[in-house]
Give the backbone structure.
Amino acid sequence: MSMDSQIKLLSAHLEEADATVYDIISKEKRRQKHFINLIPSENFTSQAVLDALGSIMQNKYSEGYPGARYYGGNEFIDEAETLCQQRALQTFGLKNADWGVNVQPLSGSPANLYAYSALLNTHDRIMGLDLPHGGHLSHGYQTPTKKISAISKYFETLPYRLDEKTGLIDYDKLEEMAMLYRPKIIIAGTSAYSRLIDYKRFREIVDKVGNCYLLCDMAHISGLVAGGVIPSPFEFADVVTTTTHKSLRGPRGAMIFFRKGVRSVDKKGVETMYDLEGPINMSVFPGHQGGPHNHTITALAVALHQAQQPEFKEYQRTVLENAKALASRLGDSKESGGLGYNVVSGGTDNHLVLVDLKDKQIDGARVERILELVGVAANKNTVPGDKSAMKPGGVRMGTPAMTTRGFQGADFKRVADIVHRAVNITKKLDGKALEAAQKSGRKNPASVNAFREYVKEGEEIVEIIELRREVEDWVANYNMASIDTTIRNRMENEYQRHVDRGNLSIHGYEPPFLTREVARANTIPRWQARERYRYLTGWYDFPTDPSPGLHRPQGLERPQLPARSSSIGTLMV
Protein backbone atom coordinates (compact mmCIF):
# COMPACT_ATOMS: atom_id res chain seq x y z
CA MET A 1 0.00 0.00 0.00
CA SER A 2 1.55 3.28 -1.12
CA MET A 3 1.13 6.62 0.58
CA ASP A 4 0.02 8.07 -2.73
CA SER A 5 -2.90 5.66 -2.91
CA GLN A 6 -3.86 6.53 0.67
CA ILE A 7 -3.77 10.24 -0.09
CA LYS A 8 -5.89 9.68 -3.19
CA LEU A 9 -8.45 7.71 -1.17
CA LEU A 10 -8.61 10.32 1.59
CA SER A 11 -8.58 13.46 -0.55
CA ALA A 12 -11.14 12.52 -3.19
CA HIS A 13 -14.40 14.45 -3.07
CA LEU A 14 -17.63 12.50 -2.77
CA GLU A 15 -18.55 12.64 -6.45
CA GLU A 16 -15.30 10.87 -7.29
CA ALA A 17 -15.05 8.64 -4.22
CA ASP A 18 -18.59 7.25 -4.17
CA ALA A 19 -20.74 8.06 -7.18
CA THR A 20 -23.65 6.03 -5.81
CA VAL A 21 -23.99 8.04 -2.60
CA TYR A 22 -23.31 11.27 -4.49
CA ASP A 23 -26.21 10.45 -6.80
CA ILE A 24 -28.54 9.76 -3.86
CA ILE A 25 -27.63 13.12 -2.31
CA SER A 26 -28.10 14.85 -5.67
CA LYS A 27 -31.57 13.33 -6.00
CA GLU A 28 -32.44 14.47 -2.49
CA LYS A 29 -31.23 17.97 -3.34
CA ARG A 30 -33.54 18.02 -6.34
CA ARG A 31 -36.43 16.74 -4.25
CA GLN A 32 -35.93 19.40 -1.58
CA LYS A 33 -35.58 22.08 -4.25
CA HIS A 34 -38.84 21.20 -5.97
CA PHE A 35 -41.01 20.23 -2.97
CA ILE A 36 -43.18 22.41 -0.79
CA ASN A 37 -42.04 21.42 2.69
CA LEU A 38 -44.83 21.82 5.23
CA ILE A 39 -43.43 19.51 7.90
CA PRO A 40 -43.25 21.79 10.97
CA SER A 41 -40.33 19.90 12.52
CA GLU A 42 -38.11 20.44 9.46
CA ASN A 43 -36.16 23.40 8.17
CA PHE A 44 -33.36 24.34 5.78
CA THR A 45 -30.25 25.13 7.74
CA SER A 46 -27.66 27.66 6.61
CA GLN A 47 -24.54 27.09 4.56
CA ALA A 48 -22.42 28.16 7.54
CA VAL A 49 -24.01 25.46 9.72
CA LEU A 50 -23.43 22.87 6.99
CA ASP A 51 -19.81 24.00 6.72
CA ALA A 52 -19.30 23.37 10.42
CA LEU A 53 -21.12 20.03 10.26
CA GLY A 54 -18.76 18.86 7.54
CA SER A 55 -15.64 20.11 9.30
CA ILE A 56 -12.71 18.30 10.91
CA MET A 57 -14.33 18.84 14.32
CA GLN A 58 -15.92 15.43 13.76
CA ASN A 59 -12.50 13.74 13.93
CA LYS A 60 -12.03 14.26 17.68
CA TYR A 61 -13.10 12.07 20.58
CA SER A 62 -13.88 14.06 23.73
CA GLU A 63 -15.69 12.11 26.43
CA GLY A 64 -16.39 14.37 29.37
CA TYR A 65 -16.90 18.11 29.61
CA PRO A 66 -14.75 21.21 28.97
CA GLY A 67 -11.75 21.10 31.28
CA ALA A 68 -12.46 17.50 32.33
CA ARG A 69 -11.96 15.22 29.34
CA TYR A 70 -10.86 11.60 29.23
CA TYR A 71 -8.72 12.22 26.13
CA GLY A 72 -5.93 14.65 25.35
CA GLY A 73 -5.87 17.22 22.58
CA ASN A 74 -9.22 18.83 23.35
CA GLU A 75 -8.14 22.45 23.76
CA PHE A 76 -10.18 23.71 20.81
CA ILE A 77 -13.00 21.23 21.32
CA ASP A 78 -13.38 22.73 24.80
CA GLU A 79 -13.35 26.20 23.28
CA ALA A 80 -16.11 25.31 20.82
CA GLU A 81 -18.34 23.63 23.41
CA THR A 82 -17.92 26.46 25.92
CA LEU A 83 -18.76 28.98 23.20
CA CYS A 84 -21.85 26.96 22.31
CA GLN A 85 -23.01 26.97 25.94
CA GLN A 86 -22.47 30.72 26.25
CA ARG A 87 -24.37 31.41 23.05
CA ALA A 88 -27.22 29.12 24.12
CA LEU A 89 -27.75 31.17 27.27
CA GLN A 90 -27.39 34.46 25.38
CA THR A 91 -29.87 33.42 22.70
CA PHE A 92 -32.62 32.91 25.26
CA GLY A 93 -31.69 35.87 27.46
CA LEU A 94 -30.44 33.78 30.39
CA LYS A 95 -27.81 34.60 33.01
CA ASN A 96 -25.10 32.10 33.85
CA ALA A 97 -25.85 32.57 37.56
CA ASP A 98 -29.44 31.39 37.06
CA TRP A 99 -29.20 28.77 34.32
CA GLY A 100 -26.84 26.18 32.93
CA VAL A 101 -27.04 24.15 29.72
CA ASN A 102 -25.81 20.83 28.40
CA VAL A 103 -25.31 20.90 24.61
CA GLN A 104 -24.19 17.29 24.16
CA PRO A 105 -27.52 15.40 23.73
CA LEU A 106 -27.77 13.83 20.30
CA SER A 107 -31.46 14.56 19.72
CA GLY A 108 -34.69 15.54 21.41
CA SER A 109 -36.12 12.21 22.56
CA PRO A 110 -32.82 11.15 24.16
CA ALA A 111 -32.55 14.57 25.81
CA ASN A 112 -35.92 14.06 27.45
CA LEU A 113 -34.89 10.61 28.68
CA TYR A 114 -31.66 12.04 30.10
CA ALA A 115 -33.58 14.75 31.95
CA TYR A 116 -36.13 12.32 33.39
CA SER A 117 -33.37 9.96 34.49
CA ALA A 118 -31.57 12.80 36.25
CA LEU A 119 -34.63 13.90 38.20
CA LEU A 120 -36.45 10.62 38.87
CA ASN A 121 -36.03 7.12 40.15
CA THR A 122 -37.33 4.21 38.11
CA HIS A 123 -41.15 4.05 38.18
CA ASP A 124 -41.55 7.60 39.46
CA ARG A 125 -44.50 9.43 37.91
CA ILE A 126 -44.68 11.73 34.88
CA MET A 127 -47.58 13.61 33.32
CA GLY A 128 -47.46 14.78 29.69
CA LEU A 129 -49.89 15.74 26.96
CA ASP A 130 -51.48 12.68 25.33
CA LEU A 131 -50.08 11.89 21.87
CA PRO A 132 -53.45 11.96 20.05
CA HIS A 133 -54.06 15.36 21.64
CA GLY A 134 -50.80 16.90 20.41
CA GLY A 135 -48.14 15.46 22.72
CA HIS A 136 -44.96 13.62 21.84
CA LEU A 137 -43.92 9.97 22.09
CA SER A 138 -41.06 10.85 24.42
CA HIS A 139 -43.52 12.19 26.99
CA GLY A 140 -44.49 8.61 27.85
CA TYR A 141 -47.14 7.54 25.35
CA GLN A 142 -48.91 4.24 25.92
CA THR A 143 -52.18 2.68 24.80
CA PRO A 144 -54.59 0.71 27.01
CA THR A 145 -52.87 -2.50 25.85
CA LYS A 146 -49.27 -1.54 25.12
CA LYS A 147 -46.47 0.71 26.35
CA ILE A 148 -45.38 2.37 23.10
CA SER A 149 -42.64 4.69 24.34
CA ALA A 150 -39.79 3.24 26.41
CA ILE A 151 -40.40 6.16 28.77
CA SER A 152 -43.65 4.48 29.82
CA LYS A 153 -41.67 1.32 30.66
CA TYR A 154 -39.05 3.04 32.80
CA PHE A 155 -41.47 5.44 34.51
CA GLU A 156 -45.17 5.56 35.32
CA THR A 157 -46.95 7.94 32.97
CA LEU A 158 -50.39 9.51 32.91
CA PRO A 159 -51.56 11.77 30.07
CA TYR A 160 -53.50 14.98 30.33
CA ARG A 161 -55.63 16.05 27.39
CA LEU A 162 -57.30 18.84 25.47
CA ASP A 163 -60.83 20.02 25.89
CA GLU A 164 -62.17 18.47 22.69
CA LYS A 165 -64.76 21.22 22.28
CA THR A 166 -62.18 24.00 22.18
CA GLY A 167 -59.02 22.17 21.12
CA LEU A 168 -57.19 23.81 24.04
CA ILE A 169 -55.33 22.24 26.96
CA ASP A 170 -57.82 21.55 29.75
CA TYR A 171 -55.88 23.11 32.63
CA ASP A 172 -58.63 22.54 35.18
CA LYS A 173 -58.75 18.83 34.42
CA LEU A 174 -54.93 18.70 34.41
CA GLU A 175 -54.86 20.21 37.89
CA GLU A 176 -57.51 17.82 39.16
CA MET A 177 -55.62 14.79 37.81
CA ALA A 178 -52.24 16.04 39.03
CA MET A 179 -53.49 16.49 42.58
CA LEU A 180 -54.64 12.87 42.59
CA TYR A 181 -51.68 11.35 40.71
CA ARG A 182 -48.91 13.40 42.41
CA PRO A 183 -46.34 13.21 39.59
CA LYS A 184 -42.67 14.11 40.09
CA ILE A 185 -42.53 15.80 36.66
CA ILE A 186 -45.21 17.60 34.67
CA ILE A 187 -44.23 18.23 31.05
CA ALA A 188 -45.35 21.41 29.33
CA GLY A 189 -44.59 20.68 25.71
CA THR A 190 -46.23 19.60 22.48
CA SER A 191 -45.59 18.41 18.96
CA ALA A 192 -48.95 19.19 17.36
CA TYR A 193 -50.53 22.00 19.37
CA SER A 194 -51.02 25.32 17.65
CA ARG A 195 -51.79 27.53 20.63
CA LEU A 196 -49.65 29.25 23.24
CA ILE A 197 -48.89 27.32 26.42
CA ASP A 198 -49.85 28.95 29.71
CA TYR A 199 -46.58 28.35 31.55
CA LYS A 200 -47.73 30.39 34.54
CA ARG A 201 -50.71 28.07 35.02
CA PHE A 202 -48.43 25.05 34.72
CA ARG A 203 -46.16 26.53 37.40
CA GLU A 204 -49.10 27.04 39.73
CA ILE A 205 -50.21 23.43 39.27
CA VAL A 206 -46.68 22.10 39.83
CA ASP A 207 -46.30 24.15 43.02
CA LYS A 208 -49.69 22.98 44.25
CA VAL A 209 -48.70 19.33 43.70
CA GLY A 210 -45.47 19.89 45.66
CA ASN A 211 -42.12 18.16 45.25
CA CYS A 212 -42.66 18.26 41.51
CA TYR A 213 -40.61 19.65 38.63
CA LEU A 214 -41.90 21.60 35.63
CA LEU A 215 -40.10 20.41 32.51
CA CYS A 216 -40.81 22.42 29.38
CA ASP A 217 -40.13 20.74 26.04
CA MET A 218 -39.88 23.60 23.55
CA ALA A 219 -38.43 21.52 20.70
CA HIS A 220 -40.89 22.84 18.12
CA ILE A 221 -41.01 26.45 19.21
CA SER A 222 -37.45 27.23 20.36
CA GLY A 223 -36.80 29.40 17.32
CA LEU A 224 -39.95 31.41 17.98
CA VAL A 225 -38.92 31.80 21.62
CA ALA A 226 -35.42 32.90 20.61
CA GLY A 227 -36.94 35.38 18.18
CA GLY A 228 -39.12 36.84 20.92
CA VAL A 229 -42.39 36.35 19.03
CA ILE A 230 -44.02 34.00 21.58
CA PRO A 231 -43.69 33.75 25.39
CA SER A 232 -40.64 32.05 26.87
CA PRO A 233 -40.92 29.10 29.27
CA PHE A 234 -37.77 30.04 31.18
CA GLU A 235 -39.52 32.32 33.67
CA PHE A 236 -41.50 29.39 35.07
CA ALA A 237 -39.66 26.15 34.22
CA ASP A 238 -37.19 24.12 36.26
CA VAL A 239 -35.80 22.31 33.22
CA VAL A 240 -36.15 23.14 29.52
CA THR A 241 -35.33 20.72 26.72
CA THR A 242 -35.22 21.47 23.01
CA THR A 243 -34.07 20.12 19.72
CA THR A 244 -31.96 22.45 17.61
CA HIS A 245 -32.97 21.68 14.01
CA LYS A 246 -36.61 22.73 13.86
CA SER A 247 -37.64 26.38 14.10
CA LEU A 248 -34.19 27.17 15.57
CA ARG A 249 -32.76 26.21 12.15
CA GLY A 250 -29.58 24.57 13.43
CA PRO A 251 -28.03 21.11 13.12
CA ARG A 252 -29.77 17.96 14.35
CA GLY A 253 -29.07 17.98 18.07
CA ALA A 254 -30.56 18.95 21.42
CA MET A 255 -29.97 20.95 24.59
CA ILE A 256 -31.00 20.59 28.22
CA PHE A 257 -31.28 23.81 30.23
CA PHE A 258 -31.41 23.58 34.03
CA ARG A 259 -31.99 26.08 36.80
CA LYS A 260 -29.45 27.09 39.40
CA GLY A 261 -29.84 28.89 42.71
CA VAL A 262 -32.72 28.80 45.17
CA ARG A 263 -35.54 26.37 44.43
CA SER A 264 -37.80 27.14 47.39
CA VAL A 265 -37.97 28.80 50.81
CA ASP A 266 -39.95 27.19 53.63
CA LYS A 267 -42.03 28.93 56.29
CA LYS A 268 -38.98 29.33 58.50
CA GLY A 269 -37.01 31.02 55.73
CA VAL A 270 -34.79 28.01 55.06
CA GLU A 271 -33.70 27.86 51.44
CA THR A 272 -33.61 24.72 49.34
CA MET A 273 -31.16 24.97 46.46
CA TYR A 274 -31.50 23.47 43.01
CA ASP A 275 -29.28 20.46 42.47
CA LEU A 276 -29.73 19.82 38.76
CA GLU A 277 -26.39 20.53 37.10
CA GLY A 278 -24.54 17.50 38.43
CA PRO A 279 -27.34 14.95 37.94
CA ILE A 280 -28.18 16.16 34.42
CA ASN A 281 -24.56 16.25 33.27
CA MET A 282 -23.97 12.80 34.75
CA SER A 283 -27.11 11.51 33.06
CA VAL A 284 -25.89 12.68 29.66
CA PHE A 285 -22.31 11.45 30.19
CA PRO A 286 -21.50 8.84 31.33
CA GLY A 287 -25.08 7.79 32.03
CA HIS A 288 -26.39 7.52 28.48
CA GLN A 289 -23.78 8.75 26.00
CA GLY A 290 -20.09 8.38 25.29
CA GLY A 291 -18.23 10.93 23.21
CA PRO A 292 -20.24 13.95 22.04
CA HIS A 293 -20.57 14.89 18.37
CA ASN A 294 -18.22 17.84 18.25
CA HIS A 295 -19.06 18.81 14.67
CA THR A 296 -22.71 19.13 15.70
CA ILE A 297 -21.90 21.18 18.79
CA THR A 298 -19.71 23.48 16.69
CA ALA A 299 -22.45 23.84 14.09
CA LEU A 300 -24.94 24.58 16.88
CA ALA A 301 -22.70 27.40 18.08
CA VAL A 302 -22.94 28.87 14.58
CA ALA A 303 -26.72 28.51 14.50
CA LEU A 304 -27.08 30.16 17.91
CA HIS A 305 -24.98 33.08 16.72
CA GLN A 306 -27.27 33.43 13.71
CA ALA A 307 -30.31 33.24 15.99
CA GLN A 308 -29.17 36.42 17.73
CA GLN A 309 -29.19 38.45 14.51
CA PRO A 310 -31.99 40.88 13.56
CA GLU A 311 -32.63 38.91 10.36
CA PHE A 312 -33.47 35.81 12.41
CA LYS A 313 -35.97 37.70 14.53
CA GLU A 314 -37.62 39.06 11.39
CA TYR A 315 -37.70 35.53 10.00
CA GLN A 316 -39.55 34.28 13.09
CA ARG A 317 -42.09 37.09 12.80
CA THR A 318 -42.72 36.00 9.22
CA VAL A 319 -43.04 32.34 10.27
CA LEU A 320 -45.82 33.38 12.63
CA GLU A 321 -47.57 35.60 10.09
CA ASN A 322 -47.39 32.86 7.47
CA ALA A 323 -48.90 30.28 9.81
CA LYS A 324 -51.81 32.61 10.51
CA ALA A 325 -52.30 33.16 6.76
CA LEU A 326 -52.33 29.40 6.15
CA ALA A 327 -54.75 28.76 9.02
CA SER A 328 -57.03 31.57 7.91
CA ARG A 329 -57.27 30.40 4.32
CA LEU A 330 -57.89 26.80 5.37
CA GLY A 331 -60.19 27.42 8.31
CA ASP A 332 -62.24 30.49 7.47
CA SER A 333 -65.72 29.87 6.17
CA LYS A 334 -66.32 29.92 2.44
CA GLU A 335 -68.42 33.04 2.93
CA SER A 336 -65.37 34.73 4.48
CA GLY A 337 -63.04 33.68 1.68
CA GLY A 338 -61.74 30.50 3.30
CA LEU A 339 -61.96 26.83 2.44
CA GLY A 340 -64.05 25.74 5.43
CA TYR A 341 -61.75 23.16 6.98
CA ASN A 342 -61.88 22.21 10.64
CA VAL A 343 -58.67 23.72 12.02
CA VAL A 344 -58.10 22.27 15.49
CA SER A 345 -58.53 25.02 18.13
CA GLY A 346 -59.78 27.36 15.41
CA GLY A 347 -56.42 28.83 14.41
CA THR A 348 -52.79 29.14 15.41
CA ASP A 349 -50.50 31.17 17.65
CA ASN A 350 -47.27 29.52 16.54
CA HIS A 351 -45.65 27.88 13.51
CA LEU A 352 -48.07 25.05 12.79
CA VAL A 353 -51.61 24.34 11.70
CA LEU A 354 -53.44 21.11 12.53
CA VAL A 355 -56.41 20.22 10.32
CA ASP A 356 -59.04 17.65 11.31
CA LEU A 357 -60.22 15.91 8.13
CA LYS A 358 -62.80 13.59 9.65
CA ASP A 359 -65.71 15.75 8.49
CA LYS A 360 -64.36 15.40 4.93
CA GLN A 361 -64.77 11.60 5.15
CA ILE A 362 -61.07 11.07 4.52
CA ASP A 363 -58.08 10.34 6.73
CA GLY A 364 -54.68 11.96 7.08
CA ALA A 365 -52.72 8.95 5.82
CA ARG A 366 -54.35 9.01 2.39
CA VAL A 367 -54.08 12.79 2.08
CA GLU A 368 -50.42 12.67 3.11
CA ARG A 369 -49.72 10.22 0.29
CA ILE A 370 -51.41 12.33 -2.39
CA LEU A 371 -49.70 15.47 -1.11
CA GLU A 372 -46.38 13.68 -1.44
CA LEU A 373 -47.15 12.64 -5.01
CA VAL A 374 -47.98 16.22 -6.00
CA GLY A 375 -44.81 17.60 -4.42
CA VAL A 376 -45.97 18.65 -0.95
CA ALA A 377 -44.36 17.22 2.18
CA ALA A 378 -46.76 17.22 5.13
CA ASN A 379 -47.54 14.58 7.70
CA LYS A 380 -50.57 12.67 8.88
CA ASN A 381 -51.27 13.42 12.51
CA THR A 382 -53.58 12.34 15.27
CA VAL A 383 -56.30 14.75 16.33
CA PRO A 384 -58.59 14.59 19.37
CA GLY A 385 -60.83 11.55 19.13
CA ASP A 386 -58.43 9.43 17.05
CA LYS A 387 -57.75 5.82 17.98
CA SER A 388 -55.03 4.95 15.44
CA ALA A 389 -51.73 6.75 14.91
CA MET A 390 -51.28 4.96 11.57
CA LYS A 391 -54.68 6.07 10.23
CA PRO A 392 -55.19 9.40 11.97
CA GLY A 393 -57.85 11.91 11.14
CA GLY A 394 -55.62 14.92 10.68
CA VAL A 395 -52.78 16.53 8.75
CA ARG A 396 -50.13 18.70 10.39
CA MET A 397 -48.55 21.57 8.47
CA GLY A 398 -45.94 24.16 9.40
CA THR A 399 -44.34 27.27 7.97
CA PRO A 400 -40.66 27.41 9.08
CA ALA A 401 -39.09 25.59 6.12
CA MET A 402 -40.81 27.44 3.30
CA THR A 403 -40.46 30.76 5.12
CA THR A 404 -36.72 30.11 5.04
CA ARG A 405 -37.06 29.81 1.26
CA GLY A 406 -38.89 33.12 1.01
CA PHE A 407 -42.60 32.31 1.14
CA GLN A 408 -44.89 35.08 2.34
CA GLY A 409 -48.52 35.14 3.41
CA ALA A 410 -49.89 35.15 -0.15
CA ASP A 411 -47.77 32.11 -0.97
CA PHE A 412 -49.19 30.18 1.96
CA LYS A 413 -52.71 31.01 0.85
CA ARG A 414 -51.79 29.41 -2.46
CA VAL A 415 -50.39 26.45 -0.51
CA ALA A 416 -53.77 26.10 1.20
CA ASP A 417 -55.44 25.96 -2.21
CA ILE A 418 -53.00 23.25 -3.32
CA VAL A 419 -53.75 21.24 -0.18
CA HIS A 420 -57.47 21.63 -0.87
CA ARG A 421 -57.03 20.34 -4.42
CA ALA A 422 -55.02 17.39 -3.08
CA VAL A 423 -57.79 16.56 -0.61
CA ASN A 424 -60.35 16.54 -3.42
CA ILE A 425 -58.10 14.31 -5.54
CA THR A 426 -57.71 11.98 -2.56
CA LYS A 427 -61.46 11.66 -2.04
CA LYS A 428 -62.02 10.93 -5.72
CA LEU A 429 -59.27 8.30 -5.84
CA ASP A 430 -60.36 6.72 -2.56
CA GLY A 431 -63.70 5.78 -4.08
CA LYS A 432 -62.06 4.31 -7.15
CA ALA A 433 -59.51 2.42 -5.03
CA LEU A 434 -62.24 0.90 -2.89
CA GLU A 435 -64.19 -0.20 -5.95
CA ALA A 436 -61.10 -1.75 -7.55
CA ALA A 437 -60.13 -3.56 -4.34
CA GLN A 438 -63.63 -4.98 -3.92
CA LYS A 439 -63.71 -6.22 -7.51
CA SER A 440 -60.36 -7.95 -7.07
CA GLY A 441 -61.53 -9.62 -3.87
CA ARG A 442 -58.77 -7.98 -1.86
CA LYS A 443 -58.82 -8.47 1.88
CA ASN A 444 -59.49 -5.18 3.73
CA PRO A 445 -60.47 -3.24 0.58
CA ALA A 446 -60.88 0.00 2.55
CA SER A 447 -57.36 -0.10 4.01
CA VAL A 448 -54.70 2.53 3.45
CA ASN A 449 -52.50 -0.12 1.83
CA ALA A 450 -55.23 -0.88 -0.72
CA PHE A 451 -55.41 2.83 -1.51
CA ARG A 452 -51.64 3.10 -1.93
CA GLU A 453 -51.57 0.04 -4.18
CA TYR A 454 -54.21 1.60 -6.42
CA VAL A 455 -52.55 5.01 -6.61
CA LYS A 456 -48.99 3.61 -6.95
CA GLU A 457 -46.66 6.52 -7.87
CA GLY A 458 -49.42 8.51 -9.54
CA GLU A 459 -47.74 8.22 -12.92
CA GLU A 460 -51.02 7.37 -14.67
CA ILE A 461 -53.28 9.80 -12.81
CA VAL A 462 -53.70 13.02 -14.77
CA GLU A 463 -54.76 15.18 -11.80
CA ILE A 464 -51.63 14.20 -9.87
CA ILE A 465 -49.32 14.76 -12.83
CA GLU A 466 -50.74 18.21 -13.56
CA LEU A 467 -50.66 19.41 -9.96
CA ARG A 468 -47.14 18.04 -9.45
CA ARG A 469 -45.93 19.94 -12.51
CA GLU A 470 -47.56 23.13 -11.24
CA VAL A 471 -45.97 22.75 -7.80
CA GLU A 472 -42.50 22.02 -9.18
CA ASP A 473 -42.57 24.93 -11.62
CA TRP A 474 -43.66 27.30 -8.86
CA VAL A 475 -41.45 26.29 -5.95
CA ALA A 476 -38.27 25.99 -8.05
CA ASN A 477 -38.29 29.79 -8.36
CA TYR A 478 -37.63 30.18 -4.63
CA ASN A 479 -34.16 30.31 -3.15
CA MET A 480 -32.65 27.36 -1.32
CA ALA A 481 -29.44 28.87 -0.07
CA SER A 482 -27.49 25.79 0.99
CA ILE A 483 -27.98 24.11 -2.39
CA ASP A 484 -27.68 27.21 -4.51
CA THR A 485 -24.52 28.33 -2.71
CA THR A 486 -22.90 24.91 -3.09
CA ILE A 487 -23.45 24.92 -6.84
CA ARG A 488 -22.32 28.52 -7.18
CA ASN A 489 -19.13 27.89 -5.20
CA ARG A 490 -18.30 24.85 -7.29
CA MET A 491 -18.92 26.83 -10.46
CA GLU A 492 -16.62 29.60 -9.26
CA ASN A 493 -13.87 27.14 -8.40
CA GLU A 494 -14.20 25.35 -11.73
CA TYR A 495 -14.23 28.63 -13.61
CA GLN A 496 -11.07 29.85 -11.87
CA ARG A 497 -9.32 26.53 -12.43
CA HIS A 498 -9.80 26.83 -16.18
CA VAL A 499 -8.81 30.51 -16.14
CA ASP A 500 -5.58 29.57 -14.37
CA ARG A 501 -4.88 26.87 -16.93
CA GLY A 502 -5.40 29.34 -19.73
CA ASN A 503 -8.02 27.27 -21.50
CA LEU A 504 -11.12 29.29 -20.65
CA SER A 505 -12.28 31.77 -23.22
CA ILE A 506 -15.27 33.94 -22.55
CA HIS A 507 -16.29 33.29 -26.13
CA GLY A 508 -15.82 29.58 -26.48
CA TYR A 509 -15.63 27.19 -23.53
CA GLU A 510 -17.84 26.11 -20.69
CA PRO A 511 -16.63 23.41 -18.28
CA PRO A 512 -18.84 20.31 -18.50
CA PHE A 513 -19.33 20.28 -14.72
CA LEU A 514 -21.07 23.62 -14.82
CA THR A 515 -23.74 22.75 -17.34
CA ARG A 516 -24.22 19.35 -15.74
CA GLU A 517 -24.81 20.82 -12.28
CA VAL A 518 -27.06 23.59 -13.58
CA ALA A 519 -29.09 20.99 -15.44
CA ARG A 520 -29.34 18.79 -12.34
CA ALA A 521 -30.39 21.65 -10.10
CA ASN A 522 -33.06 22.89 -12.49
CA THR A 523 -34.11 19.54 -13.95
CA ILE A 524 -33.72 21.04 -17.42
CA PRO A 525 -31.89 19.61 -20.43
CA ARG A 526 -28.14 20.13 -20.68
CA TRP A 527 -28.50 22.31 -23.78
CA GLN A 528 -30.72 24.74 -21.86
CA ALA A 529 -28.26 24.77 -18.98
CA ARG A 530 -25.44 25.53 -21.41
CA GLU A 531 -27.37 28.53 -22.75
CA ARG A 532 -27.86 29.78 -19.21
CA TYR A 533 -24.20 29.33 -18.36
CA ARG A 534 -23.11 31.19 -21.49
CA TYR A 535 -25.32 34.12 -20.60
CA LEU A 536 -24.02 34.19 -17.04
CA THR A 537 -20.40 34.18 -18.16
CA GLY A 538 -20.96 36.95 -20.67
CA TRP A 539 -20.78 34.92 -23.86
CA TYR A 540 -23.73 36.76 -25.37
CA ASP A 541 -26.70 38.93 -24.55
CA PHE A 542 -30.26 37.99 -25.32
CA PRO A 543 -33.19 40.37 -25.25
CA THR A 544 -35.60 37.44 -25.24
CA ASP A 545 -35.32 33.76 -24.44
CA PRO A 546 -32.51 32.27 -26.58
CA SER A 547 -33.99 28.79 -26.53
CA PRO A 548 -37.46 27.33 -26.05
CA GLY A 549 -38.20 26.59 -22.42
CA LEU A 550 -35.33 28.70 -21.02
CA HIS A 551 -36.49 31.65 -18.97
CA ARG A 552 -34.32 34.28 -17.42
CA PRO A 553 -35.10 34.24 -13.69
CA GLN A 554 -36.22 37.46 -12.11
CA GLY A 555 -33.23 39.32 -10.72
CA LEU A 556 -30.66 37.46 -12.85
CA GLU A 557 -27.95 39.89 -13.93
CA ARG A 558 -24.89 39.34 -16.04
CA PRO A 559 -21.67 39.80 -14.07
CA GLN A 560 -18.84 42.03 -15.17
CA LEU A 561 -15.90 39.66 -15.47
CA PRO A 562 -12.33 40.95 -15.37
CA ALA A 563 -9.74 38.81 -17.11
CA ARG A 564 -8.97 36.58 -14.10
CA SER A 565 -12.06 37.02 -11.95
CA SER A 566 -13.23 34.08 -9.86
CA SER A 567 -16.75 35.45 -9.65
CA ILE A 568 -19.45 34.58 -12.12
CA GLY A 569 -22.25 36.26 -10.27
CA THR A 570 -25.32 34.69 -8.76
CA LEU A 571 -26.71 31.60 -10.42
CA MET A 572 -30.43 31.29 -9.94
CA VAL A 573 -31.27 27.60 -9.77
Residues 503-511, 534-573 have pLDDT under 50 and may be disordered. The chain has 21 helices and 19 strands.
